Amino acid sequence: MKKERRDFIKGMAAVPFLGYFAFAFKDNITREISEKNIDFRKTLKIEQIDAPKQKLLPPTGNF
After folding, report:
1. What is the DSSP secondary structure assignment for residue 61, as one 8-state letter?
2. Helices (H) and strands (E) in the chain — how many of each?
């Protein structure tokens, strides 16, 4: 009986640590994605695309 209780308490003590690492992992992934996201308009120094709006719309399949 003591061993089961002891294992349970040790397991419950690990929960906050797992939550902390999961939170830090999520923040790290979010930060890496935002760093890898490149704005090509800023890189090419383009403020606006000079294309008509009709050309930018996705095709509907109707001609």
Report:
1. S
2. 3, 0
Rounded Cα gap, residues 40 and 46, in angstroms: 8
Cα–Cα distance measured from residue 23 to residue 39, given in angstroms and rounded to the nearest whole number: 27
**What does the radius of gyration of the chain's CA atoms come to, in whole angstroms?**
26
Q: Identify which has the larger pLDDT, 1 or 21.
A: 21
pLDDT at residue 31 greater than cutoff 70? yes
Quote the CA–CA distance of 11 and 14 in Å, as a whole number: 5
Contact 41, 47 (CB under 8 A): yes
**pTM for the predicted model, two decimal places:** 0.41
